[in-house]
Design brief:
192 residues; alpha/beta; Rossmann fold; seven-stranded parallel beta sheet; 41% helix; cytokinin riboside 5'-monophosphate phosphoribohydrolase activity; hydrolase
Length: 192
């Protein structure tokens, strides 16, 4: 299976996040999975891709031309797809992936998480989505989402569309298991 890993490209973060990305890449390859990534060589993005390749796994990098122009493209990718912009990049990454794993990251990672989570809740795909959060970075997000549910902004099955993990093994085990099917009705989507 090809696993899309959303993660940080920031070079200002603690080294433990890059180490986590490398551990994820090593385990993906060990389990026989390929990687779909944002196609950059920096920070966590580069670490996960290099680790997958070091373990004999295949990598697909998807990167917008603007990032190629500033010379951060992972030209060692088995396949490097250059897109016109970020929107096209996300679409290609989505289309090429069998599962989604979210590591700690910034607003770009959050945007990717929310788009894939929303499309899963709406029944637009049946692929697993797991957030790997060993140090609790996403704890405030979980509190926010719980509050949104309590105030009626989310259906209960929104929580069935995502899984949370604190270890690499737990995250990959969750990605490899069957996921519940979500079939929203018109009433659930606000239609009358």
């Amino acid at each position: 299976m090809f696993v899309c890993v959303y993660c940080s490209s920031s070079q200002r973060i603690d080294r433990k996040y890059a180490d986590l990305a490398r551990e994820v890449g090593t385990e993906l390859a060990r389990r026989g999975h390929g990687l779909v990534s944002g196609g950059a060589i920096v920070s966590c993005m580069g670490e996960v891709a290099r680790a997958v390749r070091a373990g004999g796994g295949r990598t697909v990098g998807v990167i917008p031309q603007v990032l190629v122009d500033i010379e951060i493209a992972d030209t060692d990718s088995d396949e490097l797809i250059v897109t016109a912009d970020m929107r096209e990049r996300k679409g290609v990454m989505d289309a090429r992936s069998d599962a989604f794993l979210v590591l700690p990251g910034g607003i770009g990672t959050l945007e990717e998480l929310f788009e894939i989570w929303t499309s899963r809740v709406l029944g637009m795909h049946e692929r697993p989505l797991v957030v790997l959060d060993p140090w609790g970075l996403y704890g405030p997000l979980r509190v926010l989402v719980d509050g949104m549910y309590e105030h009626g902004f989310l259906r209960p099955d929104a929580f069935d569309a995502i899984a949370w993990a604190t270890t690499v093994d737990e995250a990959l085990d969750l990605l490899e298991r069957p996921v519940p099917q979500l079939r929203p009705t018109g009433e659930e989507l606000g239609e009358s």
